[in-house]
Amino acid sequence: MLTKRIIPCLDVKDGRVVKGIQFVSLRDAGDPVELAAFYDQEGADELVFLDISASHEGRETMVDVVQAVAGSLAIPFTVGGGINSLSDMRRILRAGADKVSLNTAAVLRPDLINEGSDYFGAQCIVVAIDARYDEGLGSWRVYTHGGRKPTEWEVIDWAQEAVSRGAGEILLTSMDCDGEKQGFNIALTKAVSEAVSVPVIASGGAGNAGHFREAFEEGKADAALAASIFHYKETSVKEVKAFLKQQGVVVR
Amino acid sequence: MIGIVDYGMGNLFSVSKGLERLGADSFISDDPEELSEATGIILPGVGSFRDAMSLLKKQGLDGFLQRYAAGGGYILGICLGMQLLFDESEENGPARGLSLIPGKIIRFQGIDASGDVYKVPHMGWNRLEFKHASPVTAGLEADHVYFVHSYYADTDDAYIAASTTYAVEVPAIVAKGNVLGMQFHPEKSGQMGMSLLRNYLSLVEGKEKS
Fold this sequence. Notes:
Chain A: Keywords: Amino-acid biosynthesis, Cytoplasm, Histidine biosynthesis, Lyase. Chain A is an alpha/beta fold and 252 residues long. Chain A has helices at residues 32-42, 56-72, 86-94, 104-108, 111-120, 155-164, 186-195, 209-217, 228-231, 237-246, and strands at residues 5-13, 16-18, 47-51, 77-80, 99-102, 125-134, 139-144, 149-154, 169-174, 200-203, 223-226.
């Protein structure tokens, strides 16, 4: 039986993992390779690296990071952030990433999804969606540019459009829940997961192990992503998985 | 020295790094002549069956792989590389494969026998079930490995060394003599994947010595 995946997410800036990493056991908490190995040992099923470099140099450095991580990591990993073209995808995938995640660029030019999917296969193409509830819309609206710009897209319409264009997976972040640690957005996750034929990764709001169970059982998510609760050691991948197993959720 | 076949579509880096972690030497090439020097071949691959076959043909790699297998050399196909070993695929209309293992590649239906819908691709960690004894699985206990695919092999039980279950029984490790295939990504499947690759390397080394 296919297991539910737990995915830690790491922000990378200019080749270093940044933002609230508290690992005293590591020699260097900013080293992507060391952190990747740590999460691998903890039982993470996959990793996501989000490149938040603002400069061209930072983006170039990301390719080196991908190579180094691919050289040591025996689990799949996705790279997102600033991927705007087929050649960006090619460089990241050829460097050893298993998947690329497209967000703003895909909304601005949806053909990018088709191009990537036709060339590399749907399994390489993750479409990341940031969504926030919109009273006027009576549903969730899709945002781009790191959640700063509202778009015309309603979340289910966009998710279905992305999948019809060849997205192999949807990484769905609830902007309402992100950072609150009160749990994943179950209604949003369930709505999208039931509307598309591809796996959905729930993101935003994880505060404890129980939240993961809710995302899988009630939200129908196929995977769940979290950053700070793992980085700050509020819980660990190992603990979350032990809890899920005990609750009858199938995990590796 | 393991030769990794480069036809422009595989995730070559992760395969070669996986081998490096196991202390095995490998090289990446798209040249049949160079590859014929390899003691064992790995055919990786992600992408579409039809594109992969036409790229292999363009470089004369299809004929090379068939000759290499006929000569008793070990070939390991991974993911799409495994699917290419079969007779044909229905992906984007029927396309001929390498015909090294009898069978064809078909798509997950997305709806099971009881009418419930399931997601395609089959993506994530699923548990292996060992079927026929194989040198590739020798000494190992079945564990989870990482799959990403929308098509799977419809083949005779005789060629299935391990399978997994995703709505249907999915051949996970296939073997016909010296031709082997893994539908999952051993190089991305943690310890279990590394152990399977190690067994493949032992097979290749065994042949080298004999």
